[in-house]
Amino acid sequence: MRTALTAFVVLPLLEWISFARLERTLDAAARLLPAAPVDQVAAAIWVDSLLARLPPPWRFTCLRRAIVLYHMLRAGGAPVTLCIGVRREGDASLRAHAWLLIDGVLALEPARIAERVSMFTEIVRFPAARALVP
To answer: Mean pLDDT for the chain?
Structure first.
C-alpha cells in the first residue's frame, strides 16, 4: 500500500516539477511522519512490480524506480543517495541511468545492471553533497 501511494504521488509530480524541488517537498513531508523502517528488498520488488504494470507515461524506467525507492527509504530513515549518470555509446548517443547508494554502496540494483553502473559518469546526486562550513 505504501509503495502504491508513494508511486501515485511521486510519479505525477515528477512530470510537473524539477527533481530538486520534488526532493525538498518530499523531504519536508517525510519529516512530518515518524520514520518507519522499510524492508529494502521487499520495497524494491514491490516497486518493480508496480511500475511494470503502470500505463504510459508512468511506465517503468530506472529513474522512476530510483525516485520512488529513494523517497520510501528516506522516509524510513535509511541513509540513501540517488545518483544519476551518463555514458556515451559507440554510435555517439548518450545513455543515462539512475541508481541508489545506501551508506555509499550500490544497492537494490538487478545483478545484470549492477555490473554496468561503473560505466556511467555520475552527473548529479541527491541529497547533494553539502560543503562543510568551518
So the answer is: 81
Helix (H) or strand (E) holding 75: helix 62-75
**132 within domain boundaries:** no
**Band (133; pLDDT cuts 50, 70, 90):** very low
- Does residue 40 sit within a domain? yes
CA distance 79 to 15: 26
Total domain count, the chain: 1
DSSP letter (8 states) at residue 49: H
Q: Which domain holds residue 54?
A: 2-126
Start-to-end C-alpha separation, the chain: 44
Q: What is the pTM of this model?
A: 0.78
Q: Return the C-alpha cell found at 66.
A: 530510483
